[in-house]
Design a protein that fits this description.
By secondary structure, the chain is α+β, with helices and mostly antiparallel strands. It has four helices and eight strands, in the order ββαβααββαβββ. The strands form two sheets. A six-stranded mixed beta sheet has the order 4-7-6-5-3-8. The chain has a two-stranded antiparallel ribbon with strand order 1-2. Strand 1 and strand 2 form a beta hairpin. It is globular, with a radius of gyration of 22 Å.
Length: 196
């Protein structure tokens, strides 16, 4: 078999193709739309396979706040403490970076009423009606900054708390959850379009 040398075709996308010797069909160039989509997701999410955590409503809703799609309003509410910036667990994690927020399936009317009362009394936040809160799927992505045993955040209950930042709502993706952290493919996550 003849030896194959490789050269580089310069352009918006680099591609290695054979020069001389055996012939081989080059891979098709990535379309502009596909390249822009790929670049957009690489910018938004750090890994091709995202770690995920299953969280019960209404806590998942309070972390992501999918009801607020204005960047200015999200910034105002973030600084005002209207986003849940701690996820309390009985265990610690070494995970850092992007984490998909999955909503567990179980969320009864009784639980919704209890949560609505507690959250309004402690934080002044009004929950949406139960039927408007998604269950059984991914609703957003958040960044994990650390895992601590104590925090000044009013959301911290312990014994461990994941420190959360940069919550981003995504199109709802129905899927079953799992215990502890689990994996979801990046390609199924579609960020919602925010406006000023």
């Amino acid at each position: 078999t003849a030896a194959i040398r490789f050269g580089t075709v310069m352009g918006s996308t680099r591609q290695r193709i054979p020069i001389g010797g055996a012939t081989r069909r080059p891979r098709p160039m990535m379309t502009m739309a596909r390249r822009q989509t790929t670049d957009r997701f690489k910018t938004r999410f750090e890994e091709e396979i995202l770690k995920a955590i299953s969280i019960q409503q209404s806590w998942a809703w309070l972390i992501i706040r999918p009801d607020v799609l204005s960047t200015q309003e999200r910034s105002r509410l973030l600084h005002g403490g209207s986003f849940k910036n701690i996820e309390n667990r009985s265990w610690s994690t070494s995970h850092r970076g992007d984490l998909a927020v999955h909503v567990s399936q179980s969320y009864s009317k009784r639980l919704h009423i209890e949560h609505a009362d507690i959250i309004y009394r402690e934080f002044g936040i009004v929950l949406p009606p139960q039927q408007d809160m998604k269950v059984g799927g991914v609703i957003g992505v958040v960044k994990v900054l650390g895992c601590v045993r104590e925090s000044p955040s009013p959301w911290f209950k312990g014994p461990w708390g994941m420190e959360l930042a940069d919550p981003r709502p995504v199109e709802f993706v129905p899927m079953p959850g799992k215990l502890s952290l689990f994996e979801v493919p990046n390609e199924v996550i579609r960020p919602l379009q925010l406006h000023p």
